Predict the structure.
Amino acid sequence: MEFEWLNSKIVEESIEVVLVFNEMGNILFGNPSAREKLEYSGEELQRQNMTWIFRQEFQKEDGGYFPFQKEKIFEKTESALYRKNSSCFLANIRCFPMEKSGIYYLLAEDITGQKDTDARIRQLKEEGENNRRIRNEFNANITHELRTPVNGIKGHVTALMDVIEEEEQRKTLDVILYCCDNMSSIINNILDFSKLEAGKLTLEEKEFDFYQMMDKVIATHTATINKKELKLNVYVDEKIPRIVIGDELRLNRILNNLLSNAVKFTSVGYVNVSVSKTMQINDEVELFFMVKDSGIGISKEEQDRLFQSYSQVDASITRRFGGTGLGLAITKQLVEMMNGSVHVESEKGKGSNFSFYVKLHTNQNIDEIPEHLEVYHKWSNFTAAMENSGEDQFYQFGTEENRGEIKKRMEKLVLSIELGAWDKAETLAETLKTLIERSDGELKKLILRMGMAIRKENYEKSMEMYEQVKTALIERMGEL
């Protein structure tokens, strides 16, 4: 039987199975793909009946074949095709009548691979969900177990602070309390992250004193800021209602995460914190926060990974600064739960500016919608004033402020090398590199070599390079 289209290149090269048959199920034609997948030669295939290939759709009786049920195969989109050796594969099928009465053609697309892939995807998804559930349960258990001893240590140290008067001992207790607070912060981040992943974290709506909360946040980091000799500038808009309604604990967490990072990654200069009311409609208040620092900064390429879970922009950061890599991921999710968003502006070596807005409620019903652009300019002027109030003098090589900072860092650096406090020495070397950024190339090379010796924890080479750096600084700046 001649069908011109059957001899076309499209049919010959098609990866789909093409079969032509009559109402009794006798196969009249099969393309190369059909012969290959069904494992018949051309002559063998034309001697077959559809009852052997489609055993569910075609039937036969002892007396021979009988016409197939057209509606059964026309409606079916997935079926099993049986090969010569009785094995089978799944395919999506389409069946159409040809112009000549009683003749039909069928197209079948092998979906075995797709089914395997879909099954594998489902399996991986189930495994992922199971692993996530196990991890969240583990995190919840471990954070609970860790919280108990940390709170116990903190309670005993707090009690000791009331009876110990010797200054050095009190400083030691302060360090222990600081470490306990850090551990509590890490525990809380892990616990919140587990709840967020499981979709079980809900925000509270309770009244709290906004100004008291800001005082607590700043007080938490004041000791570290003072220890690192950083400048702290805080601006809180007086238009913000004192009593607001929202989740104080989670808002505190957001600010602590951002402020902790700013302090951690800033070794010289300043940290600015500012918050302003940008809008109020009825009882809903929109607050806009900025946390700006003069720290190590983040390149444009690295900013894409900032808010990912367990991610830090540089693997060496964990070793040098610590952290779980969860803080910003949690911050982003918590801010979004408060109907806000978080943004970052940063440049490598030139500090970072994290900003976010959230929506809270208040008992004061007013409508106040300031122009956001004006608010931004007001904040820009504020932060610019803070940055130009002397901090930049730290970086102007040779100024009095710059010399003073270099001298302090050099004194701490040699002590760290002598004591073998290599992590501290490496941080100080990085700070010195920032402070001499605008000096000549030779001095930069000496600082770089000193940093390499410190990273290798080579005492002799570190001291040798320290003396060379000190000599070069004295030559360029006078006595330190």
Summary: The longest helix spans residues 112-161. Confidence is low (pLDDT under 50) at residues 318-322, 371-379. The radius of gyration is 36 Å.
